[in-house]
């Protein structure tokens, strides 16, 4: 009994040690700063107002609030990957909802950056498949190269490094997402450095797997969809399938009427 209690205490002590605590995003809480307060102006560009109209047209006018996430994405992209307080307030105004309702959404999702980030926002996946395939080693290599730790921005302001949960590319683990859009997979401590060097030099690294593999193909190469037709015609005749379905529907309707 005593030894099991000891074990529990030592586990808790280990887990609560700041050195062992996983670096979760620090960008989802608001702290008023000179460049992030409600007196800093934010206005959507003319082009983005056009995009907003297109987004709003997808929802009934009494459910404008449903557009909150796409509008927050638009605001963040326009604002150098940073969702400021004024940007959120602007979204609330356009959607005619309370500011608090927008804050609730923005602070729930890690993809919204509530503090300024570097030019390149590096989000390294730390979930089990990526971790087992070496994300910790890749993270250490990145930290060393950019000169900052997880949750920090590099001294040159170019990179912000953050660890996030599964980004859906587990078959190509470990992987990294940059600026919420570009994905780089099959990373190693060696191949991640040239990738960062390219970004630093203003070049665009090739997206996707960094080890030369084609998409998520296994060691045997392509084993499924091998009869894929490059002319992009489908194996299944969807028009015939639709006709069949309509006929079955009509037959069921007539059978139901006959029963009455
Ligand atoms: S675990 Fe890393 S992408 Fe899924």
Describe the structure in your own words.
Strand 4, helix 8 (192-200) and strand 5 (208-209) form a beta-alpha-beta unit. Mean pLDDT is 89; it is low at 15-21. It is built from 9 helices and 5 strands. The chain has helices at residues 2-16, 46-56, 68-78, 85-95, 99-108, 128-132, 135-146, 192-200, 238-259; strands spanning 120-125, 159-164, 176-178, 182-185, 208-209. A 5-stranded mixed beta sheet has the order 2-1-3-4-5, with helices on one face. Among the domains are: 46-108, Arc Repressor Mutant, subunit A, CATH 1.10.10; 120-209, 3-Layer(aba) Sandwich (Glutaredoxin), CATH 3.40.30. Helix 3 (68-78) runs antiparallel to helix 4 and helix 4 crosses helix 5 (99-108). The protein binds FE2/S2 (inorganic) cluster (FES). FE2/S2 (inorganic) cluster is lined by residues 125, 127, 129-130, 166-170, 173, 175.
CATH superfamily of the domain at 120-209: Glutaredoxin
Helix content: 40-55%
Query: Tell me, what is the CATH class of the domain at 120-209?
Result: Alpha Beta
Number of strands: 5
Strand order of the largest sheet: 2-1-3-4-5
Terminal Cα separation, in Å? 73 Å
Give the overall shape: flat
What do we call the CATH topology of the domain at 120-209? Glutaredoxin
Please state roughly what percent of the residues sit in beta strands, choosing from under 5%, 5-15%, 15-25%, 25-35%, 35-45% or over 45%.
Answer: 5-15%
Radius of gyration: 25 Å
Mean pLDDT: 89
Cofactors and ligands: FE2/S2 (inorganic) cluster
Largest sheet: 5 strands, mixed
Could you state the order of secondary-structure elements as H and E? Answer: HHHHHEHHEEEHEH
Low-confidence stretches: 15-21
CATH architecture of the domain at 120-209: 3-Layer(aba) Sandwich
